[in-house]
Amino acid sequence: MRIPCPHCGTRESQEFVYRGDAAPVRPADDGAMFDYVYLRDNVAGVMREHWYHAQGCRQWIVVTRDTRSHAIDHAEFAR
Amino acid sequence: MRFSIFNLAAHALTGHRRWTPSWRDASPKAGYDVVIIGGGGHGLATAFYLAKVHGITNVAIVEKGWIGGGNAGRNTTIIRSNYGLPGNEPFYEWSMKLWEGLEQALNYNAMVSQRGVLNLCHSDAQRDAYARRGNAMRLHGVDAELLDRNQVRAMAPFMNFDNARFPIQGGLLQPRGGTARHDAVNWGYARAASALGVDIIQNCEVTGLLTDNQGAMTGVETNRGPIRAGKVGMAVAGNSSRLAAMAGLRLPIESHVLQAFVSEGLKPVIPGVITFGAGHFYISQSDKGGLVFGGDIDGYNSYAQRGNLPVVQDVCEGGMALMPMIGRARLLRSWGGIVDMSMDGSPIIDHAPVPGLYLNAGWCYGGFKATPASGWCFAHLLATDTAHETATAFRLDRFATGDLIDEKGQGAHPNLH
Questions:
Q1: In this structure, how many other beta carbons lie within 10 angstroms of the beta carbon of residue B301?
Q2: pLDDT of B261-303, one tens digit each?
Q3: Model confidence over A27-66: pLDDT tens digits?
Q4: Which chain A residue has the Cα nearest residue B305?
Q5: Which domains does chain A have, with CATH numbers?
Q6: In chain B, N or C: fewer CB atoms in 10 Å?
Q7: Distance between the two ends of chain B, CA-based, in angstroms?
Q8: ipTM value > 0.95
Q9: What are the Cα distances from residue A43, in Å, to A62, B177, B238, B255, B301?
């Protein structure tokens, strides 16, 4: 699996650290923290997910990937 | 029909051409007392113990593929009960006790072989951690022996004892651990459950869950029509989130891919199960001679049932660091299975927050060894609506209450457990 880093170009996936689904957003109030920390949609299909290019540009990126086939559509900077 | 030396001899006289199928390939009836979704080892064991222990025989197992085609046939066949935490250890030891009597209970040769599980340590800190785990096991009445370097060398002299970076300093041995033939475990449970009246329905995929106007479960919708059910148990590790979503639930689980490997058949060389403590590599040898080994999960969400090459390289590097002799063996096959990685690395056997729906999920990459106890405890929950005494910690709400069972101490990072 090769990841198209928007800064470095296409690189091998082992240069990256995986963080998971990019959908959960840290909530302001404590009541929603359980949901944010523990519950996941666990998408079977196209998912936007966080990867960190640890052995490259050290940028957090969002990769759009199909979890059923590992096919990567595109990647962008996390913000 | 019971298997015995006598009917084996009788069938030998007819050239073994008159054996009949081990279980009925059933078609769905209109309704059952209990429908279990998932015909893997856990689902089959659940159905068997429901019928055998609790007398509930009006049970169906619905399986989207065929028996033995999912994770039940994709594991590395290791059985052990060498856990450290009180929420886990009694459960896995109960599983080990059930393994020890499994073949007699099922009248089926599951090739349970207690050849020992040896976890190697490579530093003082790791030896301390293993001493602590071994002591925790012994406090629960489980066998554990802390071996020094020479005792390890006597067991497995072929390992690289001259590795300067990761010297083998000893190991924690559970002599009662070992391996079992995974396919035979499934076939044995299927045969025994079917003989007690359980319907095993293959090629039957659940497409929806049926509820009444109060929101309670009334059955399942399948590609072979609706099936009514008093209770619905789900044992579909790998796809638990997808099924739970049909009930409107989100689970503390991510699906990941775990790869495993087998070499060409060799004469006996690996005495039991050996795990490398400095990288993630574990190995045993099947009775057919193949070296069966594996390591880490790939580490990203996946439903693809196949992994990528970096993990293949990582596993093989671990193997070469530990036992360079296996570099001469050729790799025969590799495969991937989709596992439920839970947020604390431990399973869930509990009521779902939907009346009539029961969860058996979150087995991470350790589900095979748990098969008998998982079935026993899930059957207990389905039959009595109370948790079995060895599985009281496997609650769904433990993530909300903070009562996590985090053996590895990684926190809520499923890909690191």
A1: 26
A2: 999 999 999 999 999 999 999 999 999 999 999 999 999 999 9
A3: 999 889 999 999 999 999 999 999 999 999 999 999 999 9
A4: A68
A5: 2-19+36-77 (3.30.2270.10)
A6: N
A7: 44
A8: yes
A9: 15, 36, 12, 9, 8
Dihedral sign for Cα atoms in the order B152, B153, B158, B162:
positive
Q: What is the pTM of this model?
A: 0.96
Nearest to A40 among B250, B304, B400 (CB): B250
Compute the distance between CA of residue B32 and CA of residue B35 in angstroms, rounded to an integer.
6
Q: CB B414 to CB A20 under 8 A?
A: yes
Please tell me chain A's helix, strand, coil percentages from 3-state DSSP, rounded to the nearest 5: 15, 45, 40
Task: Report helix, strand or coil for B105.
Answer: helix
Whether residue B417 is predicted with pLDDT greater than 90 in this model: the reply is no
**Interface touch A49/B301, C-beta < 8 Å:** yes
- Rounded distance, CA B277 to CA B275, Å? 6
**Burial class of residue B375 (count of CB atoms within 10 Å of its CB; 0-12, 13-18, 19+):** buried
Q: Closest Cα of chain B to A14: distance in Å?
A: 7
Q: Can you read off the two tokens belonging to residue B288?
A: 């057919």
Q: Is the dihedral of CA B156, B126, B407, B306 positive or negative?
A: negative
Closest chain A C-alpha to B416 CA, distance in angstroms = 10
pLDDT bin (cut points 50, 70, 90) of residue A79 is: confident
CB of A34 closer than 8 Å to CB of A48? no
Question: CA angle at residue B191 from B189 to B197, to 5 degrees?
Answer: 100
- Give the closest-approach CA distance of B159 to chain A in angstroms: 28
Identify the DSSP state of B27: P
A28 and chain B in contact, CB less than 8 A: no
Provide the pLDDT confidence category of residue B1 given band limits of 50, 70 and 90.
Answer: confident
**Neighbouring residues of B37: CB distance < 8 A, sequence distance ≥ 6:** B43, B62, B206, B220, B232, B233, B234, B235, B236, B243
Q: Does A67 touch chain B (CB under 8 A)?
A: yes
> Can you give the length of chain B in residues?
417
Residue B164, both tokens: 């300067």
Alpha helices in A1-79 (DSSP H): 33-38
Tokens of B33: 């007392």
Which SS3 state, helix, strand or coil, does residue A19 take?
A: strand
Query: What secondary structure does DSSP assign to B291-358, as a single string?
Result: EEEEEEEEEEE--SS---HHHHHHHHHHHHHH-GGGGGSPEEEEEEEEEEEESSS--EEEE-SSTTEE
Residue holding tokens 């040896």?
B118
CB contact under 8 A, A34 and B400: yes
Where do we find the tokens 């459960």?
B91
Task: Establish if B66 touches chain A: CB-CB under 8 angstroms.
Answer: no
Question: Tokens for A45?
Answer: 């299909």
